[in-house]
């Protein structure tokens, strides 16, 4: 990616729950004449986490399609862009003066403002892999649930209910 010198580049690194919500909110607020907004993530979509618990246990409702939100539909009035890649490092030009996100491919995504929204991962059904394995992952967890002799639900929050 090449940065335009007359605009400030705002990069959101991570398109999970928080990163995608923030990118959407920024796309509604930032003036496209003054800012380039870029969301960087290794998948071309975010997963609605509340729907994902149900997605991994049943085929009912086609949630694996409805629960994925493509980044090309994320930005308000098309104000923003998505860049697919896995970040491996961040290079700062000088303290407080921007820099670039370095991707696994060696490509640099320049920023004036960088938001780190890389989230967290944990083993289990909601640790979704790259998009190429997404459907397979969902099917594997559905089978585990179908084959389980006992299932215990702990907690009465959004997932438990």
UniProtKB/TrEMBL annotation:
The segment(s) forming the FAD/NAD(P)-binding domain are: 9-161
Instruction: List the InterPro entries hit by this protein, alphabetically.
Output: FAD/NAD-bd_sf, FAD/NAD-binding_dom
Record key words, sorted: FAD, Flavoprotein, Oxidoreductase
Keyword Glycoprotein assigned to the entry: answer is no
**Pfam family for this entry, one:** Pyr_redox_2
One cellular component term (GO) for this entry is: cytoplasm
Q: Does the keyword Flavoprotein apply?
A: yes
Q: Name one GO molecular function term.
A: electron-transferring-flavoprotein dehydrogenase activity
Domain of life of the source: Eukaryota
User: Into which family does the record put it?
Assistant: Belongs to the FAD-dependent oxidoreductase family.
What is the designated name of this protein?
FAD/NAD(P)-binding domain-containing protein
Species annotation: Postia placenta MAD-698-R-SB12
């Amino acid at each position: 990616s090449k940065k335009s010198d007359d605009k400030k580049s705002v990069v959101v690194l991570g398109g999970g729950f928080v990163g995608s919500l923030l990118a959407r909110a920024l796309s509604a607020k930032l003036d496209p004449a003054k800012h380039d907004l870029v969301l960087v993530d290794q998948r071309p979509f975010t997963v609605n986490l509340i729907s994902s618990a149900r997605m991994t246990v049943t085929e009912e409702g086609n949630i694996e399609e409805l629960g994925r939100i493509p980044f090309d539909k994320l930005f308000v009035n098309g104000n923003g862009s998505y860049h697919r890649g896995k970040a491996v490092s961040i290079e700062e030009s000088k303290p407080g003066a921007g820099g670039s996100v370095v991707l696994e491919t060696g490509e640099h995504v320049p920023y004036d403002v960088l938001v780190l929204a890389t989230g967290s991962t944990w083993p289990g059904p909601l640790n979704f892999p790259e998009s190429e394995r997404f459907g397979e992952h969902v099917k594997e967890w559905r089978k585990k649930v179908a084959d389980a002799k006992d299932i215990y639900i702990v907690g009465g929050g959004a997932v438990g209910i």
